Amino acid sequence: MAQYASRLLLGLLAVPLIVAMPAFAQNEVSIIPKPTLVEMHEGKYVFPSVTSIYAFEPFVDIATLLAEHPVARFMAVERIKSHKRIPGSGVRLIQARDMDRLAADAYRLVVDTSGIVITAHQPAAMLNGILTVLQLAYTQSAGGELPAMLIEDRPRFVYRGLHLDVSRHFYPLSFLKKFIDLMALYKFNTFHWHLTDGAGWRLEIKKYPELTRKAAWRTHAVWKDWQQHGRRYLEAGDPNASGGYYTQAEARELVAYAMRKGITIIPEIEMPGHSEEVLAVYPQLSCIGKPYHHAEFCIGNEETFLFLTNVLDEVTAIFPSEYIHIGGDEVNKESWTSCAKCKARMEEKGLKEVGELQHYAVGRIDSFLRSRGKKLIGWDEIQEGGLPPGATVMSWRGEAGGVQAANAGHDVIMTPTSHLYFDYYQSDPRTQPEAIGGYIPLSAVYAYDPMPAGVAADKAKHILGAQGNVWTEYMPTTEHVEYMVFPRALALAEVVWSDTKNRDWDDFYRRLQAHYRLLQQLNTNYYRPSYGVDIDVTFNPDTLTNTISLVTEQRRHGIRYTTDGQEPDAKSPLYTKPIELAMPATIQAAYFVDSGRVGPIAVAKADIHRAIGKSIAYQTPWDAAYPAQQDSTLLNGQKGGKRPDDGQWQGFTNNVDVTVDFERREALNTVTIRFLQDASVHAYQPGEVTVLLSDNGKNFREVGSLTNDLPPEEKFRKVKTYTFDFDTTQTARYVRVVATNAQNALLLTDEVVVY
Questions:
Q1: Are 692 and 730 in contact (CB under 8 A)?
Q2: Catalytic residue among 303, 330, 347, 702
Q3: Of the N and C termini of the chain, which has fewer Cβ atoms inside 10 Å?
Q4: Do residues 634 and 616 touch, judged by C-beta distance below 8 A?
Q5: What is the DSSP code (8-state) at residue 233?
Q6: Nearest CA-CA partner of 116 in 87, 140, 139, 158
Q7: Strands, DSSP E only, in 1-153?
Q8: Rounded CA separation 63/386 (Å)
């Protein structure tokens, strides 16, 4: 046995830790997140009817996780007392030595015909190796065997998190354990538990029983109904009461459950805003002493801090995490401006502006938490007025707050709405359950890099990692939560674990296909890949042609298309590669399975119009935040895509007023212009679009005007086309398009099309 261990060690010493995964290995296993190194070898290990487990002392407890293997059965763990007495078969968990040349947070996994050997220095790293074995069991077609392989792996970031809001909707402890199980399989190590907010208080606090006797219960089960009908709370036991809370015993149970799987739970207790549920039952903590008026604690009231510190005393006793999250976001400071107690506090502390009260409050809570051996963490608004030393920022309003905090020497966790808000739509809203808005498909999550530009090189160490946020206003059921989180969480798992040079979208998407098996086995209601087809039209100005690419979330060839404006059917051409068209065309495409159309028909116009490349004059300037391709944008033949920041949508904060110069009089039949409505960037449709023609560029005649009929309340991202077909052919040298900014917001347009 000692000779076996020596041969194994000598073989492994020849392998460097950081090696890119070779292409041949990717066809053998489908691990997410992608390991640093995978080498596939000849042979396989077939689990016997009962498998032996041997472990060095630090790993004995962790070894019991192998009992969660979906196929194999294991014997009781036997201790390995010396590197000279390592058994020659079975599963062996080995304490790494210096000669193993493993980083402190890395593990090495070797599978051969004799069994499995996992080597690591620390229990956390060993746990990651075990989780890889479990994931392989779920994703391999034959879970009772493993191909021979060598894996070496370590995480890129120390913080790899998912957040869950249980205030807007309350979920049972059994679901939270399932959520933890899935997190662990994908090597997340932090669960951010959003326990309190205006929609309900969810944690037992023994000193303040009204928090769970009333503040945890409301008049409507669904948040949207409650939000629109009174926002009131009820006593527990009332026939209409909806909600719930976790006892301290249940919270401790979940903490222990998660800890066993390598996951730390960070509790969030919201302050000083988002606290209307507290102030409904303890109104004396508000500025006017009445319930249902404010969501912010009175900072001038000393009883506020007595309440908060008493609550945090019980919270810190339950949660052993290094961090306590205090929220700190979206604070409405209006009530403080007219509050005598708040004004007195400002005078006492020499504060010049009301906004400084939040800084004061954060500082006091930070001091209290440090006295309990904890660190404060909050949303990026806690930076207002300066951060206490040692406070950590979660940057959600883009990346700027994170960059600012990191450069100031504070630790940062990136959670931007642009990529990591899993309450946003992940596909065409018309096909999806209602969400809060926005659009973050799986590919956008995968494209994110938690290391933002602008962080100084010597401050990069302060970017601890990233977290996906799950706000649940529109997720009344556990099935809905799963649908919004998975598989987007898998993309984030790779973002925070794998080195950027080892990440590739096509490779990730290929590996993801095997993980649908895992999600199905764990009865997870994940988002299924859409059968919808996206049509991308790219204009080539050199050849005056359009290249048509048809994309779907499906991996198999099943797209059929037409270019003559007819609907596709089972006999239409099968799309296998991009199509090049030298003439204007209307493309229609849909996905088919066994000759049956299973998805909607997508339609796009491939324009090669007469205004491409002409000169254009801007009577109103474009907005600096959306310059697109500047003065070539509207006549470059290229349409905008699904995202407002794709470089083809040009923005205007005034009216749109542009004039195309054909350089001579032309016969004109049609003018078309499109606008993108996207509430997430405050972009709306124009009030009216008007087309005018001129022969001399000075005297214009109106030839058509169209009024928008898309309401501003429409929160789904939508493109509206304004088409002007002239009854009789018009002749003119100049075409002027004017669109009025009726909402005093942002107008986004991509192309002036003229035939």
A1: no
A2: 330
A3: N
A4: yes
A5: B
A6: 87
A7: 37-46, 51-56, 74-80, 90-95, 107-112, 115-120, 145-153
A8: 46
Active-site residue (options: 112, 152, 153, 197):
197
Residues forming a β-bridge with 671: 724, 754
Predicted confidence at residue 504, as pLDDT, reads: 97
DSSP E strands in 13-98: the ranges are: 37-46, 51-56, 74-80, 90-95
CA-CA-CA-CA torsion sign (606, 609, 615, 620) = negative
Judge whether 118 and 107 are in contact, CB under 8 Å.
Answer: yes
Structural tokens at position 238: 């009332």
Q: Which residue has the tokens 């059921």?
A: 477
Give the SS3 label for residue 358.
helix
On whether the pTM is more than 0.85, the answer is yes
CA separation for the pair 601, 608 (Å, rounded): 23
What are the residue ranges of helices labelled H in 457-610?
Answer: 478-485, 488-497, 505-521
Q: Which candidate in 163, 194, 274, 359 is catalytic? A: 274
The count of other CB atoms within 10 Å of the CB of residue 384 is 16
Tell me which residues of the chain have a pLDDT lower than 70.
Answer: 1-27, 715
| CA 133 – CA 129 distance, rounded (Å) | 7
Residues paired with residue 561 on neighbouring β-strands, in sequence order: 589
pLDDT at 428: 85
pLDDT in the model for residue 208 = 98
The C-alpha torsion from 252 through 255 and 260 to 264, rounded to 10°, is: -160
Identify whether 330 is a catalytic site residue. Answer: yes
Angle between helix 173-185 and helix 478-485 axes, rounded to 10 deg: 20
Using a 10 angstrom Cβ sphere, with 0-12 exposed, 13-18 middle and 19 or more buried, the burial of residue 418 is: middle
CB 521 within 8 A of CB 70: yes
Q: Which of 197, 151, 313, 177 is nearest to 251 (CA)?
A: 177
Residue 7 CB-half CA count within 13 A: 5
Phi and psi at residue 468, in whole multiples of 5°? -90, 130
Could you report the per-residue pLDDT of 36-71, keeping only the tens digit for each?
999 999 999 999 999 999 999 999 999 999 999 999
Q: Which residues contact 89 (CB under 8 A, 6 or more apart)?
A: 52, 114, 115
- Residue whose token pair is 């005018």: 692
The burial class, CB within 10 Å (0-12 / 13-18 / 19+), for 237 is: exposed
User: What pLDDT, on the 0 to 100 scale, is given for residue 442?
Assistant: 97
Beta strand 650-652 pairing with 412-414 = unpaired
Structure tokens at 378: 């909050």
Which of 203-230 are b and which e, b meaning 16 or more Cβ less than 10 Å from the residue's Cβ? bbbeebebbbbbbbbbbbeebeebeeee
- At residue 225, the 3 state secondary structure works out as helix
Rounded CA-CA distance 105/97 in Å is 13
Instruction: Residue 530: name the closest of 470, 590, 446 by CA.
Output: 590
- What lies within 8 Å, CB to CB, of 370 at 6+ separation is 376, 390
The question of whether 277 is a catalytic residue gets the answer: no
Closest-CA residue to 736 (of 680, 698, 685, 708):
698
Residue 197 annotated as catalytic: yes
